[in-house]
## 1
Amino acid sequence: MSKYDKLTTNAVGRTVPQVVNGKDAIPFMGVGKFKPTGRKYGPLITSCADFPDDGNKVVPSLKEALVRAGIADGMTISTHHHFRNGDLVGNQIFDAAAELGIKNLTWMPSASFECHAPMIKYLENGVIHHIEGSMNGALGKFTSEGNMAGLGVLRSHGGRYQAIQDGDVHIDIAVIAAPTADCFGNATGDRGPAACGLLGFALADSQYADKVVVVTDNLVPFPCVPWQIQGNYVDFVVVMDRIGIPEKIISGTTEITKSPDRLLLAEMTAQFCSETGIVHDGFSFQAGAGGTALSIGIYFAEMLRKQGMKARFARGGSNKYLVKMLEEGLVDFILDGQTFDLEGVRSMRENPGHLNTSPFTSYNYHGKGNFAQFVDVVILGATEVDVNFNANVVTHSDGYLLHGIGGWMNCLLSKCVILPIPLFRDRMPVIRDEVTTICGPGELIDVIVTERGIAINPLRTDLIEKMKGSSLPIKTIHELKAEAEKICGKPNKARLTDEVVAVIKWVDGTVIDSVFRVDK
Amino acid sequence: MDFVTDKLALIGNRGKGIRSDCHITLELTEKDGIQLELISKVEAMYGEAIRKLIHDILAFYDIQHARVLVEDSGALSPVMAARMEAAIRQLTGSEKEYLLPMLAENLYGTARDRNRFSRLYLPGNTPSLMINAGIHKPDGIILDLEDAVAPAKKYEARFLVRNALRNIDFYSAERMVRINQVPAGLADLDFLVPHNVNLVLVPKCESADQLRQVNEKINQLKSRNNVDRTIWLMPIIESALGVLKALEIAQSENVVAIAIGLEDYTADLGTRRTQEGTESFFARSMVVNACKAAGIQAIDSVFSDVADMEALKETVIRSKALGFDGMGCIHPRQIRVIHENYAPDAAEIEKAMKIVNAFIQASAKGLGVVSLGTKMIDPPVVKRAQKLIDLAVTMGKLSADWHDEFLNL
């Protein structure tokens, strides 16, 4: 099986394969253009006769659970990233698979982290054929240099739910790491030594995978409540000494930035939202996990407090700053997709206004609407933006794949998308003639805020009109690009070969771009 | 890269946490041409441009044989050129300057009596802090060659500061440099005067004679380099002797402001700096009085707790009450607090509006004398009030058509 075949040009002018790891793939057709018909993927029918009468599904080890789940060559095994860089379970699955002599697995994490770098040895020795999820850090470098046997597939959080629901991906075995669980398989993330908040990323897997294994280090007597994951979906429960490292579960990007340059970006963004009337009584917002985005929340809070207004809801990733807003009454609800710190976990446990959501409710594009669509404003990051407002979030300007998509792509469908980004990072200009990889089509990206000027997408004539006469430096994207190049010099494009090493799936499952092997 | 001898120039910064800088290891050799190794995080985008720059600089100094290791963390061209030039000149003793074309935006001058509320200190050997300094809109930036540069780095910092003056846009902030203590600091001026420095800070100033030496050296360099514009001086008083000589310092030529440095001053007194500042009250008042007597600005010492904005605000309010016109800052976040609290307050604006209004009314009636109520107002008072109004308008504290609104009250 070749990694890919039938290259074509898609609706945003990118070269993409129509066959990916032996399966057909549809090139991106434009936002909202691809509408599949038919029925969703149907999971296996099971019978209580095949499960223990006493409800006790505990098996002695992860390896035994995998064997009893029928692990075999070529299967797809899924995991989730709610432990972020503190995950102790993912690597053990493939250690066990390697010991069992299994080959050619597809690993489908909802995201990968540096702690998953040991997977490289399994990608090298054939235990893992390829990754469908995200390829961060060392895994990204490995992929970019053309070392993975199969083609990498990157999806957004919503796209992952969509792919599972639509049957684009068939999961043979889902392994769900759960901070607290009972012997029946009911599981929750909001308590236990490895508490991480919620388990929403694992929802689709629990519903659709052939076999589901829950792994916990905190087994409680039935019932485990709340049952974020329902035991009725679960085949086996495994108890381990330790499933996650709490201090690493809390990700490093959840402190507000101390960088004066980034604070300035945050302040300009908040001022922009205020002057355009985006911040109003009853508005809604979502800010990513980065330091700049977090600081914008602080400025929003200040504005709301000063003007006696409040937000109706904020979409998480939650953190202590958002929790403070909730507790102060500056926002009615947090609709949380993942918790970034322990304050978020506590709040979710205690506060009825702090709600647990999943990629199904928030992001799935093949649903009957989703929450992200009607958020008033989202604040996101990007590695590059081009003069047509297309944005990149997965590769750097040198061509290397370094980040996953996360919920980024799904959030683009909201009412206003703002990217606060420095005009250049060290010597790397952020605004390019053409982004290295398109993850977001320009028509969905409304505003670029840099420390040297703000560019509004010409499609947003309403915002342009509202900002006339503003004291903020409104410039065109071409002016910003010229300004960066005057300072940094004109950059060369990344040196890439024409060999595809990964594809980027749009929220509807079509292929929006390819990642090409770097030429070392 | 292997080097043959131990006669190496090691210039710049490298390692963890270093950004927007580079480190050059240079060895001059007898044969084998130019051996260049480049390790750069921006290799893919700028590898060619970097190699070309390095080769151009070597050719400029007629160097045919050398080993060069460039470890680059994203240095802009003027930064890299400064590092490379310093390395070559350290080994060859050449006096030739390798200059990139000066930015046209950097040719502005500054007025003697412009606002100097805030001036942001930038360590003279740390390019990453210089590049975005201007976007925070301080009234002035200080490229510091003195205390913020380690002795071993003083040599290379001069090249970097010179190139920063030429090629980094500080977006209309007054371009200041703190030189080293006189007399050693006089040598720093060679790197500043021909490159449109607006103001020179003279540290640990204790006499008018030191300023005479600085002016003399500046004048020599100005005539040698055809520089017309006046280069302002801001002496820093940091000792008991300096405090007692404040008046002669304030009255020296080209001095537009005096700053006070309280860390060294309190050390000199053998006491400690406190929040209340009782120990420095005399010195601060002395400096303020000397400045006002000489018709120049008095600038207060920096506030060192960059996290405590409330305490900074209180300090600024006290400082303004003592008669200071501005203070130094060591973090961009301090700029706004400093501006807002040195800026005219509501009562001052109110009074100035009344005075300017009286002037406008009097002019309309063709009256030569302005009076407010029963009081006559002298022309300098009107001028000062107008200046205060202009300032309030630029700072957004007063609308540009305030006068119409004032009349409608």
## 2
Amino acid sequence: MSPSQPLPAKENALFKKILKCYEHKQYKNGLKFAKQILSNPKFAEHGETLAMKGLTLNCLGRKEEAYDYVRRGLRNDLTSHVCWHVYGLLQRSDHKYDEAIKCYRNALKWDKDNIQILRDLSLLQIQMRDLEGYRDTRYTLFMLRPTQRASWIGFAMAYHLLKDYQVAAKILEEFRKTSSTNQNKNVHGLNNNKGTDYEQSELLLYQVMVYKEGGYYQEALDHLNKYGDSEICDKLAVHEYKAELLLLLNRNKEAVKVIRDNLIARNCENRLYYTYLEQALGLTEDNEEQRLKMYTDYQNLYPKSQMPFRLPLNFVNNPVKFKSLADFYLKRSLRKGQPALFRDLKPLYSSECEKIHSKYSFKIAIIEDLMHTYRNNLKRYGSFETDEQTWGSEDATCILFVNYYLAQHYDYMKKFDKALMYVNEALRHTPTLIELYVIKAKIYKHAGNIEEAVGCMDEAQSLDSADRYLNSKCAKYLLRANRVSEAEEMCSKFTREGVCAGDNLNEMQCMWFQSEAALAYQRLNNWGEALKKCIEIDRHFAEITEDQFDFHTYCMRKMTLRSYVGLLRLEDVLKSHPFYFRAAKIAIEVYLRLYDKPLGDSDVSENINTSNITPSELKKLISKQRKAKKKASAAAANTDQSHHNSTNEKNSDKASSESEIVGEKLIPSKLERPDDPLGEAIKFLKPLQLLARERIETHLLAFEIYYRKGKILLMLQSLKRAIKIDDNCPTLLRQLVLFYDFLEKHKAELSPPVKEVIDLEIKSLIGTENVCSALELNDRFSQRNKNSLIHRLESSKLIAILQKDKDAARKNASNVINDLEKLNSVNIEVCAQMMQSVRNGEFGAVDESVIEAFRSRCHQMFPLATHFMTSSEKKLHLMNNFDKESAVNHSTVETSDGQIGEE
Amino acid sequence: MAVSSIAQLPKANENFKSDDENDYYYNKAKPKRIGGIELGDVTPHNIKLLRKLNQVVFPVTYNDKFYKDVLEAGELAKLAYYNDIVVGAVCCRIDNSENMRRLYIMTLGCLAPYRRLGIGTKMLLHVLEYAKNHRKFDAIFLHVQINNESAINFYKKFGFEIVETKQNYYKRIEPADAHVLQKTLHSCNANDEE
């Protein structure tokens, strides 16, 4: 106890009771005992009691009082380690880890060997990744308690994380020597069953991990050979490590044996094992035949397996051989009715492959050819072959899956009319195969008609409403169509009852939904809601980082050290996850927009894109929105209330700690009026710059922010990073021009050192030739890419911005439109963008007839895309589909549950 | 009285006629069965599949009440799966008209490409089994369009007989007349008990 404020025996006993009550979570009793001490005027200001009272109150959710008492306690007894420790615990429960660490350090000043405080400190240090501090603390703990297992493990782990593998391995080996004798005795004495000592097994494997990461391959292997059979339970890990280590040691013959007898024999579908095997056999890209022979051997060995048949399709480049391999593989899959066949083969289609091996595309042609042959033969003879003896030998579902495949094939090739033809034929054959509706939806989505896609997906979903995958898919398509509330309603079939679906999805950290919703709101210009979703996602990531805390003690105790190290490494790069990237990108874009055009106090952000809606439609839309808003606010009030009630009930110990992390309430109308939008944007940017450096968008977004902030060196940095990734990215070229323009305008203000840096760098940025103006630079970039629509679009936009004379911009835009057929990168998205820009008058007043010509040409190229339909064409399209649909269904009367009628 | 209610839900048969796809092999020869056939329950989650199927298989449309009742029918309504795809369905109900307790097959059908694979047989056997295990039934009966010979032959194989022909039974399709096919069950039950 604290020497400065000693308590007499009776009160001291009471104080110990408070501590006990705290440990056993009997907070009410704890408060009673505290009151007994404090009610005595002599001890009314007893620091440690006050502090403990505060800590207990904190557990009851009375945070403010808690802080008061703990601070008062500390003020009364600054030399008490208890008071400091308590203050640290309070801060920790508030997730202020840095502050908590300071408190613990103060506590240790007054009691430097306090085990409990040292442990708590080490937890915070590892959570905050203060690895040096962690090592020091673990060292102290180790010296104080050298007999405890956790001391050794923690000590070794600290070195491991600091990449000092040698020391880590030494500590572990020393510990193993002492412990294995003890433990074995224990185990033998107690239950005489060495085989089930998983903790010992995990420890040994952890040692292997450390050896391996440190490059001590021989030691690792020896270790495995010594204990692999007797003491390690996870046999698969033993074999996998062995194979890896033998490969690293270039002992290929032995490696082959392990891979063949212990890995592939266990699981012949693990792709990685075959990669190992190829490596062990020294097979490289060029000896196609030997590689193929290796796989053929395994095909014979495991005739029912898939991998040995699939993998050769990747590397066999001899067309004749490829054809016979593909033929066998396709037939087998079609007979099995594998719906995922296309997905399985998609890597053969990917453009990446084409880039690396230009000859790759012949594979697509062969597959296409084979499929057409199958289709003809199956239709005519019920067989893959034409040979009369085989007629009728194939299952009725084969033709179905051939058509299903062809639909996906042509969808991938962007031949949407053909894709639709095949999927419709399949639907005529078997209208009850739900996958077909999913593919049909996908085709419509790719073809640019999202409403039609939603219709198909909704039909798929309705055919098996117990299938959550279909339900989620449908919700996603609804979001793509900007129908957010309907999407939530769709999800509500699977979310908890009685809770608003959106809230429940947030609680479940359902990030695919939230990021799609954010995108939808962004498209709807509903900035507040979009930001809200992004911030919710950001908070999920914070929460996941936070949840890590429990594992520091748990994993050490349970000895799951390999997984623990894996977890720590995952958490370090958590925000490199695509979910974070998407949310951050949307948030930054929205903040940039809000910086460019801040909302006034009364602005409603749901600006409807009025350009292509008729007035009557607009009216409907507005009234619809108004209704939806009313409903939403009523619902919000409702849930708010119910939320309140429920938290009040269970408020006691949980609420305080849980609600902290939830943070302040997100109010869309406030979010869309940020005081410092660029500052907020930078908060989202930072993790991307750290963890998503390889993505060009990161640096493009960074430029946009710094450009608006006028930070010239940071702009330069972003440009340099982007240029390394793709020096011909259209957005990057635009930014280079803007940067050049910025330089021209601000040259006089630059300080000499900055100017020097810029002069040094600018040449490598824009090339060596001299450029006299930003416009000229733009022109040069445009010339360089005169066959690319997207580049031409960007440069046209720049002309409009840089040149006061709108005439030039207009001419340029018209030229682009005239050249349309000659350009590449002409796709739905870019054309739609172009159309939007022209209509928004970004190039000045472009002649209506030019716009119409552009629209109708786009419509010809993308007949299904709604972007380029006039409203009457849209109607006509709907009608046509109505007819087709009913033809598919042969339905004579009933249409009430069909997807055709749209409200 | 029961007849009029039947008239609202006309036509029960296995539709063997092929439609417009004459180039398909399955229209020319008996296909080989490779996959497995399973029967599954009709639930509120998959009832739309049943609708879809009936829409394609039968030239008549069934009303909402039909599907509502099917959900209550338990073992009397089944979906048939071939290779895990729904390709057929059977829906029955209990009929107490004419002082008899009979099982009435409202619909029994299979998608065209999957005919002659034994799916209809599997469904019909299920119904017969049900009737046998619930001994209270006097007979099983159904209506079939008079020109649907393949369906008539199919049911005859299982001991059904034409017991009556109803003029103008169907409202919107030609020919409008229907045979009543019936299989009496008493004898069969008695045989089993012996």
